[in-house]
Amino acid sequence: MKTIFSSLFSFYRNIKSKIAFYPSLFALSGLVFAFLMMYLEERGISGYLVENIPVLVVNNGDTALTILSACITGLISMMVFSFSMVMVLLNQASTNYSPRLLPGLISDHKHQIILGIYLSSILYCIFILFSIQPTGDQYQIPGFSVLVGILSTVICIYAFIYFIHTISQSIQITFILDKIYISAKRRMNVLLEREKDAPTVFPDSSGWYSYNNEFSGYFRDIDRENIIEFCKEKGTMIEILPVRGMFALEGIPMFRSKKELNRDEVSQFFTYFHFAREELVSNNYVLAFKQIAEVIAKAMSPGINDPGTALNAIDYLTELLRLRMLKSDHSYICEDQKIFACERAVHFEELLYTLLASIRTYCKHDIVVVQKLGAMFQYLQKQKFKEATYPATLKTEAERLLRDAQEVLDNKSDLDIISEMATRLKIALE
Description:
Transmembrane segments: 20-40, 64-90, 111-132, 144-164
Protein name: DUF2254 domain-containing protein
Keywords: Membrane, Transmembrane, Transmembrane helix
Structural class: alpha+beta
Helix content: 55-70%
Distance between the termini: 65 Å
Order of helices and strands: HHHHHHHHEEHEEEHEHHEEHHHH
Shape: flat
């Protein structure tokens, strides 16, 4: 039962980020509501309203046909325009910032819900249109259903106004960066909360039984509760080998078990892994660092040349690095002060080098951006840190940045600024 639930949950998480998920749900609800209204019309709801509140009922067949036809035409036009604007947003984000931002933008629920409202209203109006008998008397016309169709069109108009407001915000880089930051911060706070008072001793697993991956895709998430129950039931400990967010190829070692497992137990354990074909910040905070670093590199590339965007992105990167310094380089799955499994994480040294390698390449020639990065290192050196090696890592990366900038810049004033930064960061440049 747990295996089935885990598989269904994994399927739900995969399709939830698709752009058609919420529109499909709303379309289905509009279809069901249309049949419900048809049923109520057969029960005489319009006849009752004609006798008691006639102002709420459209009692002319030709008028009802004209109104619903106009509503359907207008709603289709609004939906096409809205969908086109979403495509413009995705194209601009991919061209000007980074293609890696697209999964997060596509999974924006607000735009999906608005498209779903359009679609459900269109389907509702179409099916109500089919039920109209313009040659019949007033009791055969679904007058109340037509009124509901008019109201749904009015709701769509207000949704369209809200859509214009949100799309104008979503296309701004500050909004995109803020969304990435909030998602990553939320995820990191969850991880930091789990690390509180957690044990940090895990045995050497080099001699344990290793099991290869049976799937391929981005390693998105794991089912922590089921893994704990599995380890309790089988009396074993588990080490998960790939880093979350990496593309796990079929056939590579996926996990090690202290106790040997049979084929059925291995298959059961693999159901606790969640794979996907795209990455989301809400599942892997490291992706937020990559996205912001790519925004900085793209902004400073010769084709874009936008230092302002790079400076804004560095501010968000600084805050995320401060939070990352509060986290350990190891992640444990434990319960009641007992460790059941260990999950590999991206080490701070590896993370910082990966980020700064691309940033150095595109930013070392701009003294303003280099100053901003120097201020970032200076700020991080004064913050709290979880591991004793973090300050040395910061100093090493700062030294690489300033040395690259020193080799590229030839203006004496710029070189003096580099020397001042090196002094503040206590770096000896040749």
